[in-house]
Here is the input.
Amino acid sequence: MKIIIINGPNLNLLGKREPTIYGNETFEMYFYTLQQKFQHLELHYFQSNIEGEIIDKLHEVGFDFDGIVLNAAAYTHTSVGIGDAVKAIKTPVVEVHISNIHAREEFRHHSFIAPNAKGIIVGFGLQGYELALKSFG
Here is the structure.
């Protein structure tokens, strides 16, 4: 199975940014751990702080990959375009958030991705990515 993890804005700062919420590990370090744990999967990773690049990547992989794990970060709550891209593609998407978005500011409680996602995982830290990968089998 070919699966991509797509991370949105500011997730390139994992390990540095608000470690009490997001932890001390960079995503690149964690991705290596995932690759070792899920050797039966062909894992890919993409991160961008730019909304259009995330949409372009969804279009690029959304018909050929077996699964997408998407943490659109703040764009989850603001981007109709990313929500529409998820709706337009055939590859199933699992929405992931490191923090519990429902325990944070009110504006973070709404997702433009959720209505078209296979499922949503929130509040389990980086382990949410592992849970998402397991959902693909």
About this structure: The mean pLDDT is 93. Helices lie at 19-22, 27-37, 51-61, 80-88, 127-135. Strands lie at 2-7, 42-47, 67-71, 93-97, 119-122.
